[in-house]
Amino acid sequence: EDAAGSAVDPFALVRDEVLIVSDRLCQSIVSNVPALEQAAEYFFRPGVRGKRLRPTLLLLMSSALSEQPPPPELLLPDHRPPHERPQEQRRRQQRIAEIAELIHVASLLHDDVLDDAETRRGISSLNASSGNKLAILAGDFLLARASVTLASLQNTEIVELLSRVLEHLVAGEVMQMSAGPEQLTSMAYYLDKTYYKTASLMANSSRAVAILGEQQPEVADLAWQYGRHLGLAFQIVDDLLDILGSSKQLGKPALNDMRAGLATAPVLFAAEEQPGLIPLIKRKFKGDSDVQAGLQMVQQSSGIQRAKELAAHHAQLAAQQIEALPQSSSPHALAAREALINITHRVLVRSK
Ligand code: FPP
Ligand code: MG
Ligand code: MG
């Protein structure tokens, strides 16, 4: 048994298929401009590929909504050029997993430029090692390739869903950088921003998988809600780790958020008990003394505890969406559903 109190490894169920998706991802970022290809594959190299949480949960969602397991040939690499491959349902759902990962990594490349980040996933950020210009262009390139894959699905509803995600990522980032004093101290504003920055990608790509699975609108809504609540829980835990974790553990500096002038859920809860925090939040934690004073007030409050409870609340709501799916007697679908619920527990106990 692991820390989540379960012997199931939700990642194991679709591990082989995630490898196929990763393989396809690497193929889709080939370019005849070597400098571009090198930059674009920076976070797709072995060792720095991340947890592949998004492809994993999208493939699990595909399985959760399907009576049949994926046909075995779809778990083997396909070396035919894209236009010669048949467009089975499962293959189309795999495309969503690819697109989601491409968008995610593109947003990280751009984010590290905006945040002046030095490290990511335990290595130098691309902007730090190759400069802002190349990092931005590499992100643009990944988005371009995501667009090509998206177009290949020939489904305008899916194009709109994923385009909306791009809009949300940008909107969330601009909400964060342009917040005024009232917005900086508002939990509602923080949660809206968090949906845009993190949860929208998981929510709308989950919906896309359901639509490609020819599910009823009610089921597509459950898939969307699952992604939304899981995304919110995931980001609130991320915000907690920024305060509780060490930089070594995280692969990026700790206390990054406060240093960058951001008040996240634990800080906003703490401010309800520690009014002294409010002026610090409003002036975006000027200097190390503000950060240290802020940290102390957070530690003297129930902010950490309440943020943990909020994350747990969203994780539980995510799990409830899976329980509300139409009944299935397919062992394959039921195992995937169990794994999706298991992820809602794991998201709460992760340490990086
Ligand atoms: C990480 O946040 C950043 C995001 C989840 C989204 C960033 C979005 C943009 C930069 C807009 C551009 C969008 C596209 C589609 C390229 P963080 O800085 O809080 O987390 P970190 O600790 O991982 O850096
Ligand atoms: Mg960042
Ligand atoms: Mg950022």
TrEMBL record:
Residues 76-91 have a biased composition (Basic and acidic residues). It comes from the Eukaryota. Its cofactor is Mg(2+). GO terms for cellular component: transferase complex. It comes from Tetradesmus obliquus (Green alga). This is Uncharacterized protein. The lineage of its organism: Eukaryota, Viridiplantae, Chlorophyta, core chlorophytes, Chlorophyceae. GO terms for molecular function: metal ion binding; prenyltransferase activity. Keywords: Isoprene biosynthesis, Magnesium, Metal-binding, Signal, Transferase. Belongs to the FPP/GGPP synthase family. GO terms for biological process: isoprenoid biosynthetic process; ubiquinone biosynthetic process. Residues 66-92 are annotated as: Disordered.
